[in-house]
């Protein structure tokens, strides 16, 4: 017989996914992220590579959105632009209703710190600090007190199953534990938007599954919006929406129809 706690969690997840899908058809909510007509080309010698040719999308709070496409399609380029690390040749990045296109460096950094969390394939945790400290640091930078930051870090790491690993340094954690710590760090300041580039790409399939489930659970329970680039079609089809980069544009595809 299924453990009732498992059934309750499964039901909670299904309801959250249903709401996230419904949000697509009830776009009265303000998007956490709007990409509007992004264009980006690179020049190499005399050669010009048109990577983005008018990529647009709205992502609503609580939606986990997969970003797929073949190698070289422009997924990382799009994430860098959405994360305000690069500027497009034209087009707009609108975060929680604010157009960030014309912002200077200081404002872009502030929006990144306050509104966004980043998860990369290689977690980039600070090796000399414990898991707890790694999750506290972005909060201390934001001006939270040490005790508040520690409380929030404990709560997040506990939710991710790392309550017994708080004092471990990255080298003393498994790959999956390191990546879960990185997810906790990304969520530490309660961002409105998570941007993730192959967040489970360096993990074995079993560990990847656990890390992905933890990430999905947090997206659906906190209401953060997430754009997650992945080559893993099994993971992509379990997200609320799937966007494929095709010919420099974003095309919405049906998760269940993915190959
Ligand atoms: N700084 C740069 N200078 C020149 N070309 C670049 C630069 N950055 C990216 N490109 C080119 O832009 C294209 C898109 O690269 P991008 O890394 O965004 O693709 P991707 O979809 O993330 O690929 P992958 O799945 O392999 O990570 C590639 O052809 C790449 O060579």
UniProtKB/TrEMBL annotation:
Keywords: ATP-binding, Cell inner membrane, Cell membrane, Lipoprotein, Membrane, Nucleotide-binding, Translocase, Transport
SUPFAM superfamilies documented for this protein: P-loop containing nucleoside triphosphate hydrolases
Annotated ABC transporter domain residues: 33-256
One GO process term, biological-process aspect: lipoprotein localization to outer membrane
CDD domains hit by this protein: ABC_MJ0796_LolCDE_FtsE
GO cellular component, one term: plasma membrane
Domain of life where this protein originates: Bacteria
MF-aspect GO terms: ATP binding; ATP hydrolysis activity; transmembrane transporter activity
Pfam family, one: ABC_tran
Matching InterPro entries: AAA+_ATPase, ABC_transporter-like_ATP-bd, ABC_transpr_LolD-like, MacB-like_ATP-bd, P-loop_NTPase
Family matches, as PROSITE patterns: ABC_TRANSPORTER_2
Similarity field: Belongs to the ABC transporter superfamily. Macrolide exporter (TC 3.A.1.122) family.
Record-linked PANTHER family: IMPORT ATP-BINDING PROTEIN, LIPOPROTEIN-RELEASING SYSTEM ATP-BINDING PROTEIN LOLD
Name assigned to this protein: Lipoprotein releasing system ATP-binding protein LolD
Phylogenetic classification of the source organism: Bacteria, Pseudomonadati, Pseudomonadota, Alphaproteobacteria, Hyphomicrobiales
């Amino acid at each position: 017989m299924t453990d009732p706690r498992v059934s309750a969690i499964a039901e909670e997840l299904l309801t959250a996914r249903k709401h996230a899908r419904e949000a697509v058809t009830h776009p009265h909510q303000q998007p956490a992220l709007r990409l509007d007509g992004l264009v980006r080309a690179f020049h190499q010698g005399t050669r010009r590579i048109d990577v983005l040719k008018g990529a647009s999308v709205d992502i609503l709070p609580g939606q986990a959105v997969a970003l797929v496409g073949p190698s070289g399609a422009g997924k990382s380029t799009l994430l860098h632009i959405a994360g305000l690390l690069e500027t497009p040749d034209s087009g707009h990045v609108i975060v929680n209703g604010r157009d960030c296109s014309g912002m200077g460096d200081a404002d872009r950094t502030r929006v990144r710190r306050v509104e966004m969390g980043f998860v990369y394939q290689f977690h980039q945790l600070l090796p000399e600090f414990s898991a707890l400290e790694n999750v506290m640091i972005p909060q201390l930078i934001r001006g939270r007190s040490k005790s508040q930051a520690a409380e929030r870090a404990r709560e997040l790491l506990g939710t991710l199953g790392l309550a017994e690993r708080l004092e471990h340094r990255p080298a003393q954690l498994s790959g999956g534990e390191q990546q879960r710590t990185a997810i906790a760090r990304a969520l530490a300041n309660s961002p409105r938007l998570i941007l993730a580039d192959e967040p489970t790409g360096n993990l074995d399939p079993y560990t990847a599954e656990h890390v992905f489930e933890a990430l999905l659970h947090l997206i659906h329970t906190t209401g953060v919006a997430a754009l997650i680039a992945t080559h893993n079609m099994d993971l992509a089809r379990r997200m609320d929406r799937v966007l494929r980069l095709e010919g420099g544009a974003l095309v919405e595809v049906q998760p269940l129809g993915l190959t």
